[in-house]
Amino acid sequence: GAVVSQHPSWVICKSGTSVKIECRSLDFQATTMFWYRQFPKQSLMLMATSNEGSKATYEQGVEKDKFLINHASLTLSTLTVTSAHPEDSSFYICSARSTGRSSTGELFFGEGSRLTVL
Amino acid sequence: RKEVEQDPGPFNVPEGATVAFNCTYSNSASQSFFWYRQDCRKEPKLLMSVYSSGNEDGRFTAQLNRASQYISLLIRDSKLSDSATYLCVVIPNTGGFKTIFGAGTRLFVKA
Question: Residue A94: which of A11, A27, A8 has the closest Cα?
């Protein structure tokens, strides 16, 4: 079945550095991918919708200059946390939906990236 | 009112018990519904889709009530391995990409 791969799984960085997270759809094309953030014991929070070839759509309260999203191809979206600070430490998850003819509409998730900012 | 609401629980049940979760949604035009399961520190994974006629997969039964705008998940003969957070997922309209998640219901199955 369709698979979404996310990399890296774990990131530990110093405050002030930037971190890039990649999300790839492995056997289907995804014109749209989603980025979520999840704090411990809390629900998934949609951060932004990544659109191939155009600007991402950010949810209210999410800083677009802080969380840069690039969706340059139909199989790859990247999230860059710029000038990360300890409060950015979280579990970041991407997802994509296969919309081909045989698609069930299922939303596939990447394995998640756990970011720890020291 | 939140677009999708779930009882956060936690539900603490013994092995073998039957447990049911409900999820309400506010947009009557919503078209697609799913239950996802999320284990601690893992990504969500599809448990089952929810069809208008209701559907069953082994010990799991999902139902949709459009009139009252809620979906339900029933787990029979609970296993220890069923312990997880169950997320209700709603897609607001046909062809739309936005997906709305409930906050999740935590289930603990005890021996």
Answer: A8
Answer whether B46 touches A (CB < 8 Å): yes
3-state secondary structure string across chain B: CCCEEECCCCEEEECCCCEEEEEEECCCCCCEEEEEEECCCCCCEEEEEECCCCEEECCEEEEEECCCCEEEEEECCCCHHHCEEEEEEEECCCCCCCCEECCCEEEEEEC
Which residue among B34, B43, B98 places its CB closest to the CB of A49? B98
d(CA A13, CA A58): 24
User: Which residues in chain B have their CB less than 8 angstroms from residue A113's CB?
Assistant: none
**Per the CB < 8 Å rule, is A43 touching B49?**
no
Interface test with A, best of B6, B47, B99 (most A CBs within 10 A): B99
Q: pLDDT by residue for chain B (111 residues), tens digit each?
A: 778 999 888 999 999 999 999 999 998 888 789 999 999 888 889 899 898 888 999 999 999 999 999 999 999 999 999 999 999 998 876 555 677 888 899 999 999
Beta bridge partners of B64: B71
Q: By CA distance, what is A5's nearest residue in B? A: B43
- Mean pLDDT calculated for residue range A83-88: 95
Through-space distance between the first and last CA atoms of chain B, rounded to whole angstroms: 37
In angstroms, the separation between the Cα of residue B5 and the nearest Cα of chain A is 11
Helix spans in B1-111 (H): none
Mean pLDDT of chain A: 88
